[in-house]
Amino acid sequence: MVRLLTDPAVLQKRTDEALAADPQRLEGVARPLPITVLMNLRTYVWNALQSNQQGKSISAINKRFMTSFGVDGKPCQGLLEFLGFTFKDNVWEPPRPNPWGAIPYQDPQRIFLDDVFHELSALISQRPLVEKKGNQDEYTLHPARDDLLFAVDSFDYIKAPRREFFQMAPAPYYEDLGVVEDMLSSDIVEAFTRQISVDRERAPRYLKCLKEIGILRGGEDSEAISRAVEAAYTDTNLYTEADVTEAYKYFGLTHDDPRLTEDSIIGKFYAYLSSTTTTQETETRQQLWRIGDSRKSERIKSAAEDRVATPQQAQVFLGVSDETADDFVMTMFTTKVNDNPSCRDVARRAVELIAESRNSEVLKHFVKTGEMTAGEMDVADAYLLLQVPDRTADDGAIIAAYTICVDDAPAQAEKYTRALGVIASERNSPLLSSMVPGSVGKSDRDLSKWPVGLQNIGNTCYLNSLLQFYFSIKPYRNMVLDFENFKMGLDDEACQKKQVGSRKVSKKEVERSQKFLRELGVLFSDMISSPNSFVTPGQELARLTLISPSNEAAIRRRSTISAGQFGGLGEINGMPVLGPLGPPHIVTENEIQGPVPAQEPARAEPEKAKRSSDEDSEATLVSDGAKNEAPPAQSDDKENEPPDTVMVDAPNSESESKPEKSPDAQTLAGPVGPSDEPPPVPPRPAPQVDPHRQLIEEVEIGAQQDVTEVINNVLFQSQCAIRPIQIASDGEQVDQVKDLFYGQAISYILSDKGKRSKEEWWCDIKIDVATGPRDIYTAIDGAFDIQKVNVEDSVAEQYATISKLPPILQIQVQRVQFDAVKKRSFKSTHHLDLKETIYLDRYMDTRKPEILDRRKQCWEWKDKLKKLESRRAELLRQTETDGLDTAALLNSAKDILNDLNGMKDSPETAQDAIDVDPQLIPELDRLAQGAQDELRNLEQEIDNTQTMISGQFVDYKNLRYRLYAVFVHHGSVEFGHYYIYIFDFERNVWRKYNDTYVTEVRDLDEIFKSQDRHNPPTPYFLVYVNDQIKDRLVSPVTRQIVETVPESAPEPVAGDATAMEGVIPSNKAGEADVDMHPPAYDEVYTENGASGEGVNSEMTEKKNLVLAEHGKATPWTQNGADKSGVNW
């Protein structure tokens, strides 16, 4: 009955009926709120209790009565009669209790009405504040709720500040979570977490409650709860009952079909899977997993997870039975892999289990060699194994297929190599033969003038791209090769002062980083002197490159804890099966966005003291960095973060690592009864660790890191390993790596309180192509253009400028996006139009009015362009799936009406004809023509606006940067292949570095043009270099071939440290090579010699520049040019 009085939909329906029944009389009468209906009914009940009011009848056509209770009160007749009201002669007579009753009431009818009165008062008091405004309640109640809460020690809890805006829950969402309506959202989330931890079976219900509460609360509370819901979906695989229903619908099934069996569901899954794309497979498996989990079916879940652990599961996976012949099992394996190449490892494990259960030599031979019968692999099998359907494919396509196969299944690398060798022999291809390990056949190129390739060592193909890139950076390569003259001293005093990325660096990190640079130096030496067409990076170098110092400690700690336990997804041929990374964190609109260039790492907090239990010890390896207060403009991307924990030096004595007891604890020691603390954990035998296997496992885990995270790790370790050139005022180390790769940006925030600015370091500019194709300027603009941000509960404007440009400009293309609807990551493949030359004058910090005016004008044009494109999208109906724009839709409607009109002319259809308003067809034609004209005008205006934007800074061409390297990924968000293009300025040629395969790019369209095909290769990291000094920055070909490689590398020549080529030396000047003529890389200033626009930001003093070739200080002039004539 309460719903009859308070449900907004029910109230609206009966009010509409009343307005329709007597529109003139009720004209202008407002629709009653739930609180109004409750107060009206309470008034009627109160009047019935008062002896002087008992005779008042209620007219059924009373305006207030009709709008509250409907026409004649019939929609609420049952409730009114239950309360004692009676309907007669178009009036409602109230109940008439004994008029002489005194308080406390003894008359049953008076007691009943009094109870109803107070219950209505309680309901009124619970209505939201927005309803209570304008409806003052003259009755004051003294509910016992507060006394009850106080009695159970629940009265004084922190309440949600926005509680008066929360909508009332139509179902017991709060009750199911064990909370009340005015609790903080964080407490609601905490209650949800505790509920699912102790009652996992009802997790779908709890998740639904949490989602609904977020919707009811709205605002910032909704955002906080939505993040918790998203985490529940992605981190703990939770789902709601509605999600299970949708999962059944996904496969064309119904959840309540009693005929469904495990076999029919799994069969439907495999049938559906065979027709889906690779990108859809993750969602398909997730839907099946939800069905299996809801049915408590391990068999369905194992099929969803590709989990094959028993012969029975293997048979289900391959779709065979005990009676299936061995040759057909192999055929099913081949079909399975061809349909879904990503399941190759699981399919192989399935055949292996069936072979063991049958003791089948044929299947065992097939598992071991990939051959259906003993003997050599033939050419057809080789092409089939590498999944090359076209035997006329060129060598490059075959190498790409081979590389992808090895990346996907490193354990099968030997078999794939055999297949490649068979194809190479059949084709008589020197290029393919050179790809086969152990083959040192002569290349058809002059290797003294050609870069070497790098052998893929297993699922680390982007590592090879990184190593090729860093090798080609001339100053960096020289520093690595001459590392002993740049290395950081390991004395305690120097290490204590070491600060990189705004945080202290421990001695252990320095030692590890120096080991990394020495390993890198060995590889660089091989790349210079090897007589072969490729060399192989060491596993130790791969580990040190891919895994940061902090992640290394965490990985080894976890491997120690989990030794002897079930290892995740298991292993195949001794290689661990690893899963992909989860989706990235989604930045909400309320988070303040800083300049998209990646920020310098924030200072990490020291580790907490370690405790005795495994769980607590594990926790000490996790960074407390999340608790740090990040600067408002810091980017939320992980790629440029430093190691998330600090590697600390070991204590000198055992006593240092033991927590000391407090005096109070010592006083309380003694026979005071049983202790509440658990007994100490007995010592356990240390697990036996195979160092070689651990190395391989760490490399495999490191390969899952984001490539830009690895780039950051390389730069961080390089800085840790070398001594500083100088120490900045804030204690930060200034060194050659920082001078080469790091720039500075100023973020400005304009609000009612004035202008604020903050200057920060960055090593790359982050851009995206999430919403569609764009050119490189438009993409970079997105990192610096003005935008609306929320600052201190108010809307402000923010933009960024560059105050210092690095000589080597790195640009990260953020391809991985997160679909909040489907709850999964996806890769954006929109085209990015690259330019070989870009000019960065437009982004520099300046105080010149003409540039500032152009910048503001450009922002206005872009705002206009956004509105024009939005209107165009509306006319094109881009969100609809019927493929019709507005004009076509109107013309289609016009054609249908013409057809209906024409039915009158045919005797067969005349009786079914429909009368059509004669004015409607010409009106539709007019509207369609108007839509076409508006769309045509919009297209023209969009083109004009885009032309004005692109030409706004066309005459500013002082800061010229040339495209040097393009990192490319080919595949999906879960897997794929990486390679890199690098430009040789000396020989004016682009080369493609595809692991061991280095070729000249004949057709530049493969780099610069949009490829009209599904899931094309896409750039994800770009490198531009300063055109004025490019010849001293990069040198991709450096070869001094030594036919007989010595057993050990020569010791470096002792002596004073020399500077990296073109970089300020840390101590002496004048000891660089005689052919070095670069300006210093430590500063690139704006045209007035300082970063402007900020208060008191103008720099009046001159900066001194040390030139390596002259050995003397050369001052900067105010126009930004040094005395050598180099204008920056």
UniProtKB/TrEMBL annotation:
InterPro entries: Papain-like_cys_pep_sf, Peptidase_C19_UCH, UBP14-like, UCH_repeat_domain, USP, USP_CS. One of its GO terms (molecular function) is cysteine-type deubiquitinase activity. It comes from the Eukaryota. Pfam families: RPT (PF13446), UCH (PF00443). Residues 1115-1128 have a biased composition (Polar residues). Residues 595-689, 1109-1128 are annotated as: Disordered. The keyword Magnesium does not apply. SUPFAM superfamilies: Cysteine proteinases. Residues 602-614 have a biased composition (Basic and acidic residues). Residues 921-948 form a coiled coil. Residues 676-688 have a biased composition (Pro residues). Keywords: Coiled coil, Hydrolase, Protease, Thiol protease, Ubl conjugation pathway. Residues 452-1027 form the USP domain. Its EC number is 3.4.19.12. Transmembrane segments: none annotated. This is ubiquitinyl hydrolase 1.
